[in-house]
Amino acid sequence: MTDTRGGSSLSTGSFVVAIVVLAVLGALTYALIGTAIERMRRGATAPAASPVAPVLPGQQRHNAFATADEAARRRAFGELLPREACGRVTATYYQGVRDGVAAWSVRCTSGRAWQVLLREAAEPAVLDCASEVTGSTRCFEGY
After folding, report:
1. Is a pLDDT exceeding 90 seen at residue 125?
2. What is d(CA 79, CA 81) in angstroms, rounded to the nearest whole number?
3. Which member of 36, 57, 67, 137 has the lowest number of beta carbons within 10 Å of its beta carbon?
4. CA separation for the pair 86, 53 (Å, rounded)
């Protein structure tokens, strides 16, 4: 069947094909956006790339994290954090050193983020990035 009104012709078959193509493109776009949103919601996206953590003289605890590969670093930080509040570590970020204390930020599958302060002569301090107690602490930002 062909419509010849106005001097142009459009077959019903071509119209159906165009509608199907548009529907498929719309479904793919919806699926891709939905997947990206779900990954962000689960904390699967990493923050900006972490600066390379230098090896520091006299900082064995920090150096163990600095020289580890990312998978080993995530496991090690996961052992320092409360399991029920973190789940599994998904990202680490070296922030820098201030007054001999190395600072790292850690993101978890629970959606929470933590700052871990590594002092050579003391146990690591773990601060909740969302807590008011941390005051001016800015996680996932370099010093």
Report:
1. yes
2. 6
3. 57
4. 23
pLDDT given at position 15: 77
**Domain residue spans in the chain?**
2-41, 60-134
Over residues 69-118, the pLDDT tens digits come to 999 999 999 999 988 889 999 999 999 998 889 999 999 999 999 999 99
pLDDT of residue 72: 95
Give the CB-side neighbour count of residue 54, counting CA atoms within 13 A.
5
Reply yes or no on whether the pLDDT at 65 is more than 80: yes
Q: Which of 58, 57, 54 is nearest to 121 (CA)?
A: 58
Which residues are within 8 A (CB) of 37 and not within 5 positions of it... i.e. 6 or more apart? Answer: none
Structure tokens at 117: 């302060």
Contact 106, 94 (CB under 8 A): no
Contacts of 41 (CB under 8 A, 6+ apart): 111
